[in-house]
């Protein structure tokens, strides 16, 4: 039913008329630091606010010496969260604990749910029009948590809340071209569903590439459990950070370009969909076209 649908997400407006402000929450972490570096290098970022409970003054001072235009500021501790987020256009959230071997993403829920809720509550107060990009796991649950906080404040706008599932398509392109050849940057693979194990559904049949059944089974499993591969390889020292920083920076860049008026930008994301909700599936990862048209609509690709 949802296969290869593109949700067109309109932006009612940007949060401010100043150079875009991007806030990273969890900026001193394994994802947060390389993500902040990539955002500092992005010419579309005007202001970069780095927030964490620890170490952000150092990360901020370090990045601020890079001669790109983004003005960097570090904010540390709960009493600085609101000032860090104030009037942000985009809030990227890689805050929270990562998995260790033997854990599922759901095992992170108990801790990360509260962290994400607190961040969303601050955003409601000081950056109600920000686009919120949720990286913290389990994404399948943390995105609805953010949405519920905005619903409670009666300012829920599904066009502004995104679960970042970009790493799934990044991995899918890599794994497919590893066995079939070709340029991974030019081999898109749609991945729909969610961001956890079997909820990650790669649409290999839509790549136009011929696969044997064995290849489909092996690739599907590797794409669904790519996160576990990294968790195991890191042996207790966390999960994917560098590839996730790349994926998060790519999604943020796409959103910034769309906010600046570029059209036809499509990224996958785990989002609320009215059409899905009618079928009992409120949140679903699918391709999302980012743009200025008002209202949320669906283009169904058969
Ligand atoms: N969506 C996706 O595809 C992916 C999601 N992740 C998730 O991203 C999250 C972060 O992963 P890592 O960066 O590796 O973890 P990490 O432990 O290296 O960094 C997390 C950072 O969050 C900070 N933090 C904790 N509570 C906070 C709060 N209340 N406010 C602000 N900052 C807070 C910590 O101080 C730390 O610096 C994890 O939940 C992980 O599962 C990881 C990879 C891919
Ligand atoms: O596997 C994890 O826990 C981190 C993650 O979401 C991923 O790498 O896709």
From TrEMBL:
<comment type="subunit">
    <text>Homodimer.</text>
</comment>
<dbReference type="InterPro" id="IPR022383">
    <property type="entry name" value="Lactate/malate_DH_C"/>
</dbReference>
<dbReference type="GO" id="GO:0030060">
    <property type="term" value="F:L-malate dehydrogenase (NAD+) activity"/>
</dbReference>
<dbReference type="GO" id="GO:0006108">
    <property type="term" value="P:malate metabolic process"/>
</dbReference>
<dbReference type="Pfam" id="PF00056">
    <property type="entry name" value="Ldh_1_N"/>
</dbReference>
<feature type="binding site">
    <location>
        <position position="244"/>
    </location>
    <ligand>
        <name>NAD(+)</name>
    </ligand>
</feature>
<keyword id="KW-0816">Tricarboxylic acid cycle</keyword>
<dbReference type="InterPro" id="IPR010097">
    <property type="entry name" value="Malate_DH_type1"/>
</dbReference>
<feature type="binding site">
    <location>
        <begin position="26"/>
        <end position="32"/>
    </location>
    <ligand>
        <name>NAD(+)</name>
    </ligand>
</feature>
<feature type="binding site">
    <location>
        <position position="112"/>
    </location>
    <ligand>
        <name>NAD(+)</name>
    </ligand>
</feature>
<feature type="binding site">
    <location>
        <position position="137"/>
    </location>
    <ligand>
        <name>substrate</name>
    </ligand>
</feature>
<dbReference type="GO" id="GO:0006099">
    <property type="term" value="P:tricarboxylic acid cycle"/>
</dbReference>
<dbReference type="InterPro" id="IPR036291">
    <property type="entry name" value="NAD(P)-bd_dom_sf"/>
</dbReference>
<feature type="binding site">
    <location>
        <position position="52"/>
    </location>
    <ligand>
        <name>NAD(+)</name>
    </ligand>
</feature>
<feature type="binding site">
    <location>
        <position position="99"/>
    </location>
    <ligand>
        <name>substrate</name>
    </ligand>
</feature>
<dbReference type="InterPro" id="IPR015955">
    <property type="entry name" value="Lactate_DH/Glyco_Ohase_4_C"/>
</dbReference>
<keyword id="KW-0520">NAD</keyword>
<dbReference type="Pfam" id="PF02866">
    <property type="entry name" value="Ldh_1_C"/>
</dbReference>
<keyword id="KW-0560">Oxidoreductase</keyword>
<comment type="similarity">
    <text>Belongs to the LDH/MDH superfamily. MDH type 1 family.</text>
</comment>
<dbReference type="InterPro" id="IPR001236">
    <property type="entry name" value="Lactate/malate_DH_N"/>
</dbReference>
<feature type="binding site">
    <location>
        <position position="105"/>
    </location>
    <ligand>
        <name>substrate</name>
    </ligand>
</feature>
<dbReference type="InterPro" id="IPR001557">
    <property type="entry name" value="L-lactate/malate_DH"/>
</dbReference>
<feature type="domain" description="Lactate/malate dehydrogenase C-terminal">
    <location>
        <begin position="165"/>
        <end position="291"/>
    </location>
</feature>
<feature type="binding site">
    <location>
        <begin position="135"/>
        <end position="137"/>
    </location>
    <ligand>
        <name>NAD(+)</name>
    </ligand>
</feature>
<dbReference type="InterPro" id="IPR001252">
    <property type="entry name" value="Malate_DH_AS"/>
</dbReference>
<protein>
    <recommendedName>
        <fullName>Malate dehydrogenase</fullName>
        <ecNumber>1.1.1.37</ecNumber>
    </recommendedName>
</protein>
<feature type="active site" description="Proton acceptor">
    <location>
        <position position="195"/>
    </location>
</feature>
<feature type="domain" description="Lactate/malate dehydrogenase N-terminal">
    <location>
        <begin position="21"/>
        <end position="163"/>
    </location>
</feature>
<dbReference type="GO" id="GO:0005737">
    <property type="term" value="C:cytoplasm"/>
</dbReference>
<feature type="binding site">
    <location>
        <position position="171"/>
    </location>
    <ligand>
        <name>substrate</name>
    </ligand>
</feature>
């Amino acid at each position: 039913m949802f296969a290869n649908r593109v949700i067109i997400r309109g932006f009612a407006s940007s949060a401010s008329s100043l150079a875009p402000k991007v806030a990273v929450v969890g900026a001193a972490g394994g994802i947060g630091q390389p993500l902040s570096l990539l955002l500092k290098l992005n010419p579309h970022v005007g202001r970069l606010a780095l927030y964490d409970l620890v170490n952000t003054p150092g990360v901020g001072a370090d990045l601020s010496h890079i001669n790109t235009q983004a003005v960097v500021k570090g904010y540390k501790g709960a009493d600085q969260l609101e000032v860090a987020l104030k009037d942000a256009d985009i809030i990227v959230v890689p805050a929270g604990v990562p998995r260790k071997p033997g854990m599922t993403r759901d095992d992170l829920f108990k801790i990360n749910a509260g962290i994400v809720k607190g961040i969303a509550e601050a955003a409601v107060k000081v950056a109600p029009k920000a686009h919120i990009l949720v990286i913290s796991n389990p994404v399948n649950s943390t995105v609805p948590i953010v949405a519920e906080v905005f619903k409670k404040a009666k300012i829920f706008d599904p066009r502004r809340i995104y679960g970042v599932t970009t790493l799934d398509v990044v991995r899918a392109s890599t794994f497919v071209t590893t066995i079939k050849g070709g340029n991974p940057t030019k081999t898109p693979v749609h991945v729909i569903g969610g961001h956890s194990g079997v909820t990650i559904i790669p649409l290999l049949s839509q790549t136009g590439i011929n696969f044997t059944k064995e290849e489909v089974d092996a690739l599907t499993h590797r794409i669904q459990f790519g996160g576990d591969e990294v968790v195991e390889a890191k042996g207790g020292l966390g999960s994917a950070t560098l590839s996730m920083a790349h994926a998060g920076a790519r999604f943020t860049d796409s959103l910034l370009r769309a906010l600046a008026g570029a059209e036809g930008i499509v990224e996958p994301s785990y989002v609320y969909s009215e059409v899905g909700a009618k079928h009992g599936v409120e949140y679903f990862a699918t391709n999302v076209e980012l743009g200025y048209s008002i209202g949320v609509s669906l283009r169904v690709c058969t």
